[in-house]
Each structure stands twice: as structure tokens, then as C-alpha cells.
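User: Can you model how tryptophanyl-5'AMP sits in this protein?
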Amino acid sequence: MTVIFSGIKPSGELTLGNYLGAMAQFITYQEEEAYFCIVNQHAITVPQEAVELRLRTRSLAALYLASGLDPQKVTIFIQSEVPAHAQLAWIMMSLSQMGELERMTQYKEKAGNLHESIPAGLLMYPPFMAADILLYQADAVPVGDDQQQHLELTRTLAQRFNYRFGETFKLPVAATAKEATRVMSLQDPLKKMSKSAEDSGTILLLDSPAVVTKKIKRAVTDSENKLYYDLVNKPGISNLLSIYAAISGLSVMEIELKYQEVQGYGQFKVDLAALVVGLLAPIQAHYERIMAGSELDDILSAGAQRAALVANKNLLRAEEAMGLARHK
Ligand code: TYM
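Assistant: Here's the modeled complex, given as C-alpha cells:
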């Protein structure tokens, strides 16, 4: 059985990008030994309100379940409830070099927006992420395209550890979806659709059908009025085509063919909105049931216990290998 690990930050409302890039893949790994984490300690690398963070953590756990993850099969848990994450994170930070962390694209983007006061956690984020993954000896990590570089660093740190202290960690690979590995903003298709930019360019998983339809209708396209994929000259349409392909299961070419005779983008947008609404409606209904029910706490407590068994064992192996444990 392969070991799967992935996580999502409760740092904002989940988007269609999170779903297509990551969650939709999670569901396909339920027969493996899979761990899906709500990475709340990663969320605090930028300031969070306590009340909001608690609510979003719960809401994200409910969305994991609502999107089809079965807690009987996979382990769903909150990062801060398994202290081994922070413990191995410190080890990974000690193995990291400032230069390689400063070169991380996401760090540069986020730190660049903050001007002077940059939280140190933002820089230490990638070794923390490496710890999350290595703690479970994961083989594959389902993520969107933007996490590839962090996965490379994870492999580098695992290799570095193994080289210095003996074979301890497996080298994980990123598993990305076929389509929509990088869903772009509907308003600015050169920018990633992101939780932190809650505007009409971002479709939220909990958006109502009317809101979804309005956002898609207003999506930026181009004036050519011919539907085909061309990322350079038609980034808006190409993004919509990728979303359509990811949800419908059709290839981009099949979609282009389907709309070959249709004038303009109107009908395509109407159909795309129906696809997105059709995808989100059952998830939202399930989400409401979970949030109203009382099972969530038990699932998260059991998940943390199960995760800790594996995490503690691997943490100890690492501590023994590097001389932190009193005995070997
Ligand atoms: P986060 O919370 O930003 O995003 C969660 C997942 O959603 C994917 N994603 C996207 N995919 C396609 N298009 C988009 N516009 C889009 N936006 C986000 C991300 O690639 C990610 O897979 N560092 C991680 C969280 C993390 C983690 C881990 C992931 C912490 N530890 C260990 C895997 C394994 C992050 O910030 O994801």
C-alpha cells in the first residue's frame, strides 16, 4: 500500500482551485494508507484571528468529509493536535539553509507583499511542510502545481538527513491532477485563484449557485469570441477550459469541438456555471449536515490519535538516528 499525505491551510475560505488541484485527488486515494491534515500551524505563518481560525479549522474538517473522504478509511486530523509535526519541523529547520529558503517562490511572493515586518514563520514554512510529509514516510503527496517546489525541498531535506544520519526517510513525490493543477483567478487569469483574495475572481466552495453563476458570467475573456486553448494569448478562456475539462472529464480538445459552431462565449459560460454548480451542490448539502451534526469532534480526536501513533514512531527514529534520543 502506498502512503499518501496532504494538507490544506485553514487560512481562508476554500476555493474551487483547492478543490480541483488537491481535494478532488484526495478522494481517489482512499484505498491507500492516507493522511489528510488540516494544517492550522501553517495558517499562523500570517496573522490569524483566534475565533476565525477555530471556525475555519472546523469548517475545513467538515469540507474534507463533505467532499467524500471517509474517516473509516483515511485519517483526518488537525496538525496542532499531533505535536510530533512541530518537533520534526524543528529538526528540518536545523537542516535547512537560509539561502535555499529565501529562494522559495511562495516565500518571495508573500514576503514581498508584506514589505518590512515579515514573520519568520513564513520563511520556515517549507521545512515545516517537509516535516509533515516525512513524518508519515509518505510516498506521494497530492497537491496543486504551486507546491512542487516545496516538494522538491522536502526531498532535498530527506536526502540530506539520510546522508548525514543514515537511511531514515523515504523520498516523496508530488502527485498532481491531470487538469486544473493551477486554477487562475477569473478576474486576473495571470494570477492564481487564491483563498486570500476573496473577490469575484475566486469561486468559493461554499458560494451559492447564483454567486457562482454571476462570477463565471463576469469572468474575463477576450474579444476573439472563438473557443480554443491558448495559454499565452487567451489566458482567461484557457483557464475556463481547464476548469470545464477537470469537472466534465472531457479533454480540452473535445470541449473545443463541442463549441466549434457556437458563436461567442455566452453558452460556454452558462454550461460551465451549471457544471460548477452541479459539482458544488452535493458537497454543500453534505457540509451543512456535518456542521449541524455532532460526529466531527469524535472523527478528529480519533484521527489525531491514529496519526500520532505513526508520527511518534517516525519522529523517534529520526531522533535516534541523529543522537537526540538518549538511547539508540
Ligand atoms: P494551500 O492551503 O495553499 O492549498 C491547499 C491545496 O490546494 C492547492 N491549490 C490549488 N490548486 C490548483 N489551483 C489553485 N489555484 C490552487 N490553490 C491552491 C495547493 O497546491 C494545495 O495542494 N503548503 C500547503 C499546505 C501544506 C501541505 C503540507 C500540503 C502544509 N503541509 C504537506 C501537502 C503536504 C499550502 O499552502 O496549501
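A couple of observations from the model: Residues 217 and 269 are 6 Å apart (CA to CA). DSSP finds 13 helices and five strands in the chain.
User: Helpful, thanks.
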